[in-house]
Give the backbone structure.
Amino acid sequence: MIEFVYFLIIVFIFSLISQRIESIPISPQMIFIGAGMLLGSGFLGVVNLNSDPGIVLFIAEITLVLVLFSDASKININDLRKNNLTLRLLSIGLSLTIISGIVVATLLLTDLSIWEAAIIGAVLAPTDAALGQVVVENRKLPLLVRETLEVESGLNDGLAVPFLLLFVAWSIAEETFSPVGFFIETTIAQIGFGALIGIIIGLVGGWFVYKAQEHKWMTETFQRISLIALAIISWLIADQIGGSGFIAAFVAGLATGYMLKDKVSSFIRFTEAEGQLLNLFVFFLLGFIIFPLLPNLTWQIVLYAILSLTIIRMLPVGISLIGSTLKKETILFMGWFGPRGLASIVLVLIALEEQPLFPGEETLLLAVFTTVLLSVFLHGMTASPLANIYAKILAKMDNTCMEKE
């Protein structure tokens, strides 16, 4: 329990200087990872966060459920159909990112099985909207670029979950020498039941919230609480009947957003406070877990992390945008700003919970956590400067075109 007190003390101190921190290229995630690493080093004499791993994992899962639900609920499906760039990134881009992640992991991390490499490819495919917020909110950048990156990061975590479930099922079958078909069928049922529960709860719950708000029966506080409840209800019910709770939360968010339409932005505010607190706890957890593992880092793991943030992300983005009217500077910019964060951390922990027999568990954890660690610091420090440089390049190009005309 003292570890949570330590975390909350850091939250309080950070809150006091949060306005000052915004003026420098240091993100909250950097600070909380550092605080977690300090705790994990044993410097404070308190290193017992794993005394109740069930509670820790539960908090991490709740965080991902809320993020999946809230990100999905903000998506306007009609706008998504019109945004060809987002559809390209979520179909061709995401698929190629997972495949390239698997191939590179297989070649570099030779102590992993093919299915462990596949799990790494799946959990490192989603991008983190929170880590790219500086870019998304920069009004100097084209609206299309900002919206595309925001929608991509809002949906690709939910879309990566089915791939992860299939890879975990295959790895369990391989490690237990069991028929693969049984586990694949079970996983497909998980995905199907999860999606079904998500649709039902999202549509029905969203309709009730819409009508209650329309008749002015709800206070603003309970508008937000109602959606938190819907997210967690979908997760728990799907889990109880053998479905994927994360698929359910994601689909429920899409369905709820569809029902609430333009009113959804006024409802989804829990990510600003409660969600932010849970998000920072997960990054704090990352720092705590990774510090004792750092002596076991190999050059192959570090190289994989670097490639994951560059070639593995940027090449699929470039391929998916072939034929678009985007300038090469824009494609490079969009390729670089694919930060890895919350979803990757939680998904790999869930994978290890589902399959505790991974022979390459330490390598798998280090590969994912090292990638996220580098991403938090590299994307955090470069977000604002590179966004400003990119904006200046675009402005210069526009001025040149005007002069030629």
User: Anything to note?
Assistant: The radius of gyration is 21 Å. The chain is about 75% helix and 0% strand. Residues 45-51, 401-405 have pLDDT under 50 and may be disordered. The chain has one domain: 59-360.
